[in-house]
Amino acid sequence: MSHVTITPLASASGRVAVPGDKSASHRALILAALADGESRLTGLSRGEDVRGTARLVSQLGAVVTEDATWVVRGPSGGLRPSGNPLDCGNSGTTMRLLSGVVAGVPGRHTLVGDASLMRRPMDRVARPLREMGADITGQGERETAPLRVVGRRPLHSIDFRVPVPSAQVKSAVLLAGLVAEGSTVIRESVRTRTTTEDMLALAGVSVRSVDDGAGRVVTVRPGRPQPVDWSVPGDPSQAAFFVVLGAIHPRGAITIDSIDAGPERTGFLDVLERMGASIVRRPSASGVGIELESHAAALRGTEIRSDEIPSVDEVPALAVAAAAAEGVSAFRDMAELRVKESDRFAGAMDLAARLGCRVWADGDDFFIEGRGGASRFERFEITAELDHRMVMSAAIAGAAGAGCAIAGAETVASSYPDFFDDLASLR
Ligand code: S3P
């Protein structure tokens, strides 16, 4: 386990180019592998999660060449089972999306992951895929990995309401729907990121999305994606760490270039603005996504509902903002945080407590009473528990406050291998 010591930054100003959007990177690799022909992928995340997906699609028969631009050739006859387990590492997106893919690849597949991923619930994908005709079994009630899948084709089409807000579950069913015998319908009551629908449409698949007032209904028709040259924008969830750092550091002025600005991904910006953050959003000079600028500001506590930030990925960073704010922030309906790479419900509270805040929970809500400025943060130590986002949240808190020591910091490489270099560049 590696230990990283973060010393306080005298100033936090400069420009950061965050990695390519992780969600779009996984999907670009998967859709390219499903297509018959060659796709070229630029701007992909170089994190281990995305590299893992690249390795797995090649295990399933695609040819992947890594360079500045990645080239992926999907096999004409379609993907085929690998004789070896599919190791998804730390990546829930890889495991859940690939379950949907291999459900429609005739033959036997086994999906495994690291200690964190092996604890995460897979029943949320196993249930709909079983309904579609795949034979799929996990361990225990929550159907944790190893996940054994016997794929078949065609699958049955289903009309499915996603039980928890989850783009991963929606995507697994959409991908399985590509080899169903008719149209597959997915209903979500909380609108989650639309990366899969958008990219499927660009790859020539018939997919329709209708707002039904209470949420969204997505319908996909069977079809094979066409090869597409994908250009992946920067990852807003990684930008969040630097936006928060720019806001809470007394000498913060950070610009982040070219990030995806989908409405389901930028809710954290609205929350921060409500807290008093000074954020400029403008079209990116590169023409891809938007550019953000975040400046030092006095923050005040607010109420944050999970449906404002549907994947709750940015909550650990927002907990650091809440810890620096004046007054109490209420994080409402945050149950999903408990089943991420680590229990982030406990982790976010623990981090704020180590910074010197009063914290408390009530059911699925938790509360942080801020210290009224990052200069009042205490120095702290933390263990990362195989959770990249907890490492980055701790690091920005230490950088803006009194420093920190992080054990297990190497897990940051799953999504952002250059994170510590980028953080140090703001000195
Ligand atoms: C993701 C969806 C979200 C998010 C994850 C990436 C995706 O998970 O937390 O980091 O790419 O579909 P859920 O679907 O569990 O909300």
List the helices and strands and how they pair.
Blueprint: E1 3-6, E2 12-16, H1 22-34, E3 37-42, H2 48-59, E4 63-65, E5 70-74, E6 86-87, H3 92-102, E7 107-112, H4 123-131, E8 135-139, E9 144-151, E10 159-161, H5 167-177, E11 184-188, H6 195-202, E12 207-211, E13 216-220, E14 230-231, H7 236-248, E15 252-259, H8 267-274, E16 278-283, E17 290-295, E18 303-305, H9 315-324, E19 328-332, H10 344-354, E20 358-362, E21 365-369, E22 380-383, H11 388-400, E23 404-407, H12 419-424
Parallel strand pairs: 2-15, 3-14, 6-7, 10-11, 18-19, 22-23
Antiparallel strand pairs: 1-23, 3-5, 4-5, 7-9, 8-9, 11-13, 12-13, 15-17, 16-17, 19-21, 20-21
Helix pairs in contact: 1-2, 1-3, 1-6, 3-5, 4-5, 7-9, 7-11, 9-10, 9-11
This protein binds shikimate-3-phosphate.
How do you describe this structure in short?
The chain has 427 residues and is α/β, with parallel strands linked by helices. Helix content is 29%, strand content 26%. Strands 2-15-17-16 form a 4-stranded mixed β-sheet.
Structure description:
By secondary structure, the chain is of the alpha/beta class. It folds into 2 domains: 3-19 and 233-425, Enolpyruvate transferase domain (UDP-n-acetylglucosamine1-carboxyvinyl-transferase, Chain, Alpha-beta prism); 22-218, UDP-n-acetylglucosamine1-carboxyvinyl-transferase, Chain. It is 29% helix and 26% strand. It has helices at residues 22-34, 48-59, 92-102, 123-131, 167-177, 195-202, 236-248, 267-274, 315-324, 344-354, 388-400, 419-424; strands at 3-6, 12-16, 37-42, 63-65, 70-74, 86-87, 107-112, 135-139, 144-151, 159-161, 184-188, 207-211, 216-220, 230-231, 252-259, 278-283, 290-295, 303-305, 328-332, 358-362, 365-369, 380-383, 404-407. Strand 6 (86-87), helix 3 (92-102) and strand 7 (107-112) form a beta-alpha-beta unit. Helix 7 (236-248) runs parallel beside helix 11 and helix 9 (315-324) runs parallel beside helix 10. The longest helix has 13 residues, at 22-34. It is globular, with a radius of gyration of 21 Å. The model has no long low-confidence stretch (mean pLDDT 97). The structure holds shikimate-3-phosphate. The site of shikimate-3-phosphate has 8 residues, from helix 5. Shikimate-3-phosphate is lined by residues 23, 93, 166-168, 171, 311, 313.
